[in-house]
Amino acid sequence: QPRTVSGIQATSDSLHLGNYIGALQQFVTHQESHDAFYFIANMHAITVEQDPAELRERTLRTAAQFIAAGLDPEKSTIFVQSQVPAHPQLSWVLECTTSMGEASRMTQFKDKSAKQEHVSLGLLTYPALMAADILLYNPQLVPVGEDQRQHLELTRNLAERFNYRFGKTFTVPEAQILKATAKIYDLQNPGAKMSKSQPSPQGRIDILDDAKALTKKIKSAVTDDGTEIAFDPENKPGVSNLLTIYSSLTSRSVDDIVAEYEGKMYGHLKVDLAEVAVETLTPVRERTLELLEDRAQLQAILDRGAEKASAIAEATLREVYDKIGFI
Ligand code: AQP
C-alpha cells in the first residue's frame, strides 16, 4: 500500500471547518487506500506562545476530534509528534541543509513573525521540522490545504537535495491539495482563509460548536451584492464559499446545488446549509466529548500510535545518521 502522512497543530480547543474540510476529511478517505500516519503537531504549536495546561488539553482534544471525525485507530496510526523523538532529530539535520534565505522566504514565517513581538527561532525553522515529519515516513502522498503548498515544495527540495548529496534516501512526496476545498474562507471576511488566529470567532466555524452557534454563524455569513446564487469566487466570494462548504459536507457537486437553488434567495441557502452543518457536526461533537471522558483510553491509542510510528521513523533516522557520518 502507498503511504500517507499529515498532521494538525494542537493550537485550539476545537479544529475549524477549514481544518475539517481541507485536511481531516481527506485523512479519513485516504486511510482506506493508504498506510496512513496522522499526528497532532504539538511541537509546531510551541513556535508561538502556549500555555502548558492548555497545550496538554488541546493535544488530547485534537486526538479525540481525529477519531470522532472518522479516523479509525485500527486503520490509521494516530500519534503525538513529541512522542516520536526522531522528528526533532531529523529536523536538525534538515535545518543544516536549509538556507536562511529559503526559511525566511516562507510566507507563513513572514505573516506570523509580523504578528509576534517575540519571534522564536522555531518559527523560522518550522518548515524543516515539517519536512522531517513527512520524510521520516517516506510517504507518496501528503494531504494538506493550500496554505501548506510552499512548505511542501520546500520539503520536496530538501528531500531531493539530501538524495543528491548522500544517495537515494527519501521518497520525494507529492502534495495532495484538492482544488475545490484547498481554502475555506472566513464567513465574515471571505477574502481571508478561515483560521484559528482570525480576530473575530464569528467568521470561523469550530467543529465543536453547538447547533445554536453553528446556525447563528452561518446565518450571519457575509454574502455578496446581487441575489443570484452562483459559484463565482471572484465576484461572489461569500456565496461561493458557502457553496464549497455545502458541497464538501454533502458530497454533492456545486453545480447540482446551484441548480437546486435557482431562483431562490441567499437566505434559503443559509438555512439549509446550517441544517447540513448541524447534521454533520453534531455527531462529531458528541463523539469527541464522549472520547474525552476516557482519557486513559485515548492516551493508550496515542501510545500505541507512537510506538508504531517510532519503529518506522527510527529506521529512516538511522539511515540518515549513517549517511552523514554520525557514528
Ligand atoms: N481555511 C482552510 N481551508 C482549507 N484547509 C485549511 N487548513 C487550515 N486552514 C484551512 C489545513 O488544515 C491543516 C492543519 O493546519 P494547521 O495545523 O497548520 O492549522 P493552521 O494552519 O495553524 O490553522 P490555522 O487556523 O490557519 O492557524 P493559524 O491561524 O495559526 O494560521 C493543514 O493541512 C492546513 O493546510
Automatic annotation (TrEMBL):
InterPro entries: aa-tRNA-synth_Ic, Rossmann-like_a/b/a_fold, Trp-tRNA-ligase, Trp-tRNA-ligase_bac-type, Trp-tRNA_synthetase. It holds the Pfam family tRNA-synt_1b. ATP binds at residues 9-11, 18-19, 145-147, 184, 193-197. L-tryptophan binds at residue 133. The keyword Cytoplasm applies. The keyword Ligase applies. It catalyses: tRNA(Trp) + L-tryptophan + ATP = L-tryptophyl-tRNA(Trp) + AMP + diphosphate + H(+). GO terms for biological process: tryptophanyl-tRNA aminoacylation. Keywords: Aminoacyl-tRNA synthetase, ATP-binding, Cytoplasm, Ligase, Nucleotide-binding, Protein biosynthesis. It comes from the Bacteria. GO terms for cellular component: cytosol. CDD domains: TrpRS_core. Transmembrane segments: none annotated. Belongs to the class-I aminoacyl-tRNA synthetase family. Homodimer. Catalyzes the attachment of tryptophan to tRNA(Trp). This is Tryptophan--tRNA ligase. It comes from Brevibacterium linens.
